[in-house]
Every structure is written in structure tokens, then in C-alpha cells.
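Researcher: I'd like a structural prediction for the single chain below. Treat it as a standalone chain; there are no partners to consider.
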Amino acid sequence: MKQYLSRLVMVASLVLVGCATSPMANPKDPWEPMNRKVASFNDTIDDNVLKPVATGYRNVVPELIQTGVRNVFNNLADMWSTVNNALQLKPVHTVESLGRVVVNTVFGIYGIFDVATYLKLERHPEDFGQTLGYWGVPNGPYLVLPLFGPSTLRDGVSMPVDFAVSPSQYINDIPTRNQVFALRLVSKRAELLKSGRMLEEASIDKYSFSRDAFLQYRRSQIYDGNPPDEEDSNDDPSANPLPAK
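Model: Treating it as a single chain, here is the predicted structure.
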């Protein structure tokens, strides 16, 4: 954990020192020139590596296995969501998330089968960035992370915490751990293939479209799908008092 934090401080310092803002900069995206370069780098990696691999995975691996893989990773994510729902003082969501983990782990064979959904136990995905947003920590500037894509300064700072507590991090065998990480990445990318085509076809400026869509989506997540109206378009989406639950 200490190693993650030290790297984070170093990266944040370089970003803050190296990214000057102009008077005409978008208030939500003052680092746009840098972000566009990182986004272009990510697109190159995606077009040449991730997308072809994900396409092959989707076309070759049986749908039943793909579903099982997604379910296992969702079950692992529900463990951390349970903690974050508790940190956000959401007792109902906490109980439902914990119930999903127990039911799917025991009766769904470690999450391969999503039994909890059939029992109408709803998923409530939460990460540490959402928890910080719940407690009033503002987004900060929009930030595109290498390989990880759209984010914000708050979410970038919270990401090492999400990684540190991920169950896959406790796999002692490093090659196995890397394979699990790669499988999760490919599975997630395969889910996004259709939306990626829609984005390329519908957007004149892919970068701006992705940024605005991400910020709106993230704001919706912070407020559990029911965000208040933004009276000022320059307001930070999460710099408001604790959302009513």
C-alpha cells in the first residue's frame, strides 16, 4: 500500500507541475492537451492490442463461459461494493451486496452462476472513488489515465485503494495473478465492443464525447442514478453536500 501511495504522490506532482492551464480551458478539463495525448496513446494500444484480443475472445469462447467469467469477476467486485456501501451508510445496499456475495459464492459455485439475480438481490456497484464522492470530496479535474482511460483526479487517487483490496491481489503466484488480471481486462473489453462501435460512428469528436459521457455517468453513480440538477454547468458534479439516500 505504501508503494502505491508513493507512486501516486510522484505522478500527481508531475501532473500538477507539468500541466499549466489556460484562461480558455474547460473548467472540468483544464488538462485537455495532456489528456488528449494520453487518450490517443490509449486508442493506439486499444486498436492494436486490446480490441483484436477482445474480439477473438468474444468470437471463439462460448457465450456460456464468457458469462461465467463475468459473473465471477462481478462476485469479486460485490465484496468490495459491500464495504463501500457500508462506508456510505447505505444499510439496505450493504445487506443486499453481502447477500449477493454469500448466495453466489455458495450456491453459484464461487460466482460462476448469478443465483442472486434470480432471487432479486440487486447489484449495487460501489468503489472507493464513489465513497469519497459521497462524503463530499470533489471530482477535481478530468483526467485520462494511461491504459485505464477516463477518470478524475479524485478517482485516480482512489484507484490504488481499489486495487490494493482486490481479491486477485492476494494470489501468491505472480503468473497466475497476471493471467487473472489479463482475463478480467479482456472480458471487460469484450463487453464494450458494441458500445465502442457506436461511439466511433456517432461522435464527431471522440475525446469530447467520451469525456462528457464519462462525467455524466460518474455523477449518476455518485447519486445512485438520481443526481440533482446542475444549476451551474461549471459546478463540480460531486462538490455538493452529502446526497440524500
